[in-house]
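Internal tracking record. Fields below are filled automatically when a chain is submitted to the structure queue. Please do not edit lines marked as system-generated. If the sequence contains nonstandard residues, flag them in the REMARKS field before resubmitting.
Queue: standard
Priority: normal
Entity type: single polypeptide chain
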Amino acid sequence: MSILIVAATELEIAPFIGLDLPVDILITGVGAPAAIYHLQKKLQEKKYKSVIQAGIAGTFTSSVALGDTVIVERDCFADIGINEKGVFTYIFDTNLANKNVFPYNKGWLVNDKLVKEKVPLPLVNAVTINTISDSMLQKNILLEKFGAQIETMEGAALHFVCLQEKVNFLQLRSISNEVGERDKSKWKMHEAITNLNKELVKLLG
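SYSTEM-GENERATED OUTPUT FOLLOWS
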């Protein structure tokens, strides 16, 4: 069995692709639906020892700085729910879904095979959303509700599929921007991609 490297875009792992290492690479496209479909399809075609998702992310907090690389311990689909009269209710806060039905654990998708003492990078909690916004209201709602450190558009898809398929997985993220900041002149995209690919190579070393 081999290792599968997953990314939303080629840009995020372009330096790694250029190394031509003996792993399989899957570019899913942006967003959770695309990630779920293409990852599920790939896992039906071939058995893998482990799956590593690599990508950039936004940070909610100064404790995870621009350019930092982290590993996500738990993630969730944070914007699935009901928006009524301007008030958002998370799906697990309704009677429509049970937050403890597998693969969920208290509403989270937890990578419970991580041994904290052996993880080479900081562990964080993440939220996965469908719409990236510059809204401070959205940022504050997500931060207050979930207390996550970072935000992505595909992370929970990795956890969701791999937990159910019983495949070892790792979500590796480097921070390119603050959540809500859409002025790309303030982003650290180059630094994030450089650090992401450096740590990805180390993981395989």
